[in-house]
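Bit of a strange request maybe. I'm writing a small parser for structure token strings and I need a real example to test against, not something I typed by hand. Could someone generate the tokens for this chain?
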Amino acid sequence: MKSFSSTMPRNLLVLGSGLLLLASLAWCADDKDQSDIEKRLDASARVLNEIMAVPDKAIPDKVMHDAKCIAVIPSMVKIAVGFGGSHGKGVATCRTESGAWSAPAPITITGGSWGLQLGGQAVDLVMVIMNDDGMQHLLSSKFKLGADASAAAGPVGRDAAADTDWKMKSEVLTYSRARGVFAGIDLNGAAITQDKDETRLLYDGKFVPFADILAGKVRPREASQPFLQAVRKYASAAKEHGELRKPSPSTLAANK
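Reply from user aminoacidic:
Good idea to test on real output. This should exercise your parser:
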């Protein structure tokens, strides 16, 4: 009895230390996950800023002006699952009814054979949803490019417009950047889904439906601001582009 009573405090101390260690590891993991989300948001903003900084190789103003939603997947990588494929995580935002851009919604993209075109390297992806049908597919939180939503490699060049109007009929225009080269890419076969785990991490442990986030029903977190500022900057710049300005009533009257 004496031996048992003397060892019990020691056992409790060991048990307590073990529980404390497990709690610390869990906290570190959560902290790391939160940091990863913030880094992804920052990386998405950086991708947009770097792409749009080169006018003759950027996303056209007309595309940015007409965009219903914009999604960025920084550093997508090729993975080996069965026959191979590609996987990446990113964020998406949509124009709300008020014209403002929604809080970002975490997404994942998984593709098949088209990933082989990328040579096994990490690439940045940008998807621009061009019309209401494409927006509804995105709001569904799960859709497949080329099957559920029509997609095409997007035109490149800030002033590209008239000669690429046929591509504007696509619901989603897709782009990639690898080794400094930015161009349209065929992403048909890629599946886009809501990243539920990162949604919880970004929005204080709560799961928020994709449609609620992208419809503007959720307040953006501070970590989202660099990404949203980049989207607003280039969407607004496109609106103010001279070729995209709507003629004034007096100009229309003069032309009658």
